[in-house]
Amino acid sequence: MKCRCGKKAKFRLKRYRITLCESCYPSFYVGLVEKSIKKFNLLKKSERILACVSGGKDSISMIYALKELGYNVSGFFIDLGIKKQSKKARGVFEEVSEMFDLDTGVVSLNEYGLSVDDLKIGKVCSACGTIKRYLMNRFARNNGFDVVATGHTSDDLLVFFFKNILSGNIEYIPKLAPRLEAHETLVTKVKPIFERTEGENRALVEILNVPYLKDPCPHKPKDRWRGLILNMEREKPGFEQTFVRGIVRLADSLSSKVNGEYRRCSVCGEITSRDVCLFCRLVERYGKTPIVG
Ligand code: AMP
Ligand code: ZN
């Protein structure tokens, strides 16, 4: 089995019908990201990008690719106050930022007297998602960034799609678009690696020998969807990419039909569907310090 460079290949990527060696894999990966960015008009070279890094393989792969492609990118980390996880994640973020020579920003949930561990609610992951989106957006806007970039993969999009279709939440499907333009108080959001799989990202960080968080978040419930998706991909290589492109087309066609009604949060001024946004309600309920700005 030979790589395109003539050396002995280490990987067979069935979905691309290619075999590659360790030295050619990173540039192949970056080339794929470049193609997605061009095909879906995801980013411009003039934009200031805030790349949100959790410390996991996906967001690290994203920031590596954006940096290699010459985008104007800074790293952003949120310390969520999760025992055993946040401290390690921050260490990884700092190490990676140094390796990739990144400007960085960090916000700690503790600044609001909150920690994800203290949330005594059923849907911790959903509240944590709201918190992260809120803080990413606010940091980006207040610091003059044009785009918030996240490391969502094709696996993430497929899981979100199946779960929401099955619960009838069609109105959430437009959020799966890989670029959501800025509106009201929201900064533009982009998913530059939405066509990449978790497997491709794992291979990249392993080859680059970059540190990354291997343990899943302790709050994350067991998810059977990922296993099912992996099995389908095994049965039919390329299934994920084909499906994710279909989801994106659907997201685009639905976006004009979903007319959101927005108000401004009476506490912080961000857009919300209620009088007080969920972030401010969480701070009010679980925070230990008064709300600041
Ligand atoms: P998740 O919500 O954990 O599936 O993560 C989705 C994306 O959100 C990641 O790929 C990152 O880009 C971003 N993200 C998640 N957690 C953090 C964090 N603690 N700090 C900064 N960005 C994060
Ligand atoms: Zn608010």
Low-pLDDT residue intervals, each spanning 5 or more residues: none
Strand content: 5-15%
Name the overall outline.
globular
CATH architecture level-2 label: 3-Layer(aba) Sandwich
Strand order of the main beta sheet, please? 5-4-3-6-8-7
The biggest sheet amounts to: 6 strands, mixed
Number of domains: 1
CATH class membership: Alpha Beta
CATH topology: Rossmann fold
Structural class: alpha/beta
How many H/I helical runs?
Answer: 9
Mean pLDDT across all residues, rounded?
93
Helix content percent band: 40-55%
CATH H-level superfamily: HUPs
Describe what you observe in this structure:
Helix 1 packs across helix 2. The protein has about 290 residues and is of the alpha/beta class. The protein starts with 10 loop residues before the first strand and ends in a 7-residue tail after the last helix. It is globular, with a radius of gyration of 19 Å. The protein contains nine helices and ten strands. The model has no long low-confidence stretch (mean pLDDT about 95).
Overview in brief:
The protein has 293 residues and is α/β, with parallel strands linked by helices. The chain is built from 9 helices and 10 strands.
Describe how the helices and strands are arranged.
Elements: E1 11-13, E2 18-20, H1 25-39, E3 48-52, H2 57-68, E4 72-79, H3 86-99, E5 104-108, H4 124-142, E6 147-149, H5 154-166, E7 179-180, E8 188-190, H6 198-208, H7 224-235, H8 239-255, E9 263-264, E10 271-272, H9 278-286
Parallel strand pairs: 3-4, 3-6, 4-5, 6-8
Antiparallel strand pairs: 1-2, 7-8, 9-10
Helix pairs in contact: 1-2, 2-6, 5-8
The site of zinc ion (ZN) has 8 residues, from helix 9.
